[in-house]
Amino acid sequence: MEDLIANQKAELKELQAKMQHMKHSVPKGDKKKKKQIMAEITLLQSKMEEKHRSQIEEYGKIKTSENVQQDETEKPGEMSSNFASITINDMESDASPKKLSKAQKRREKKEDEERKREQRLAEAEMSNLSSARSIETNQLNAIMSEAGFMIKEIAPDGNCLYNAIADQLLTGEYDWKALRLLAAEKLRTNREQFIPFMTNVESGEPYTEEEFEKYCHEIETTNIWGGQLEIQALSSALGQPIEIFQADSPILKIGEDLDGKTIRISYHKHAYGLGEHYNSVVPKK
């Protein structure tokens, strides 16, 4: 039992770290992404709790069976009921389970019903996302095939835009970290060109100088998503045009007047619960 609880604690710690990373990856003020993230987090929590409950109940059944064979005076089912009463929250303490009062039982029942309701909502949200993702994928695949290209998958870790562009640069001069620095530098040196298009999501007001500098700093030091402004900055800095394939819009071309080799990436609005995503586009094999 000690080994089981230690393993479950380690899994919970790993899940908490993952959830924190997911929360921090949401751009400030982006309510849509936040809603998608919270739905996915709720589903992960529910699945983990259900898994741990099942493990503890199974352990209780095994121990009950062993003890019945060793000691016929043991009451059948006594040990399994003790272990079945252990919850994930109880793992924070090594104390034995205590008998619950009627008020505690009502409270736990209410919490369990609320947890199940949140799980149903999360599953519905993920089901809707899955349907939209399937439609988008089919549309993009048709567009790619007709143009003689295919999608090369990029990890959805917040750096997908930069990794997708890095994948297109055959020289290997830039990785995602270097491209983040390059984008931030280009934005700063062309502040007057970019700042009019940057707006505070919460207030609706244009960025102040302080907000602009904070945004550039986040590009350099965090996994904040990149968008069209960063694509424009990188296209200009690299001297290469960038084409963006989309499911429901014509190919978006940025930096058409540049002479460098064209960079091709794909934009996915419904790829993951985390929100928008970019992949690399390569010639069809």
Topology record:
Elements: H1 2-24, H2 31-70, H3 78-84, H4 102-147, E1 149-152, H5 160-168, H6 176-189, H7 191-194, H8 209-221, H9 228-238, E2 242-245, E3 252-254, E4 263-272, E5 275-283
Parallel strand pairs: 2-4
Antiparallel strand pairs: 1-5, 2-3, 4-5
Helix pairs in contact: 1-2, 2-3, 2-4, 5-6, 6-8, 6-9
Can you put this structure into words, describing what you see?
- Helix 1 runs antiparallel to helix 2, helix 2 crosses helix 4 and helix 6 crosses helix 9.
- The longest helix has 46 residues.
- The chain folds into 2 domains: 91 residues, no CATH class; 137 residues, Cathepsin B, Chain A.
- It is elongated.
- It has 285 residues and is α+β, with helices and mostly antiparallel strands.
- A 5-stranded mixed sheet has the order 1-5-4-2-3.
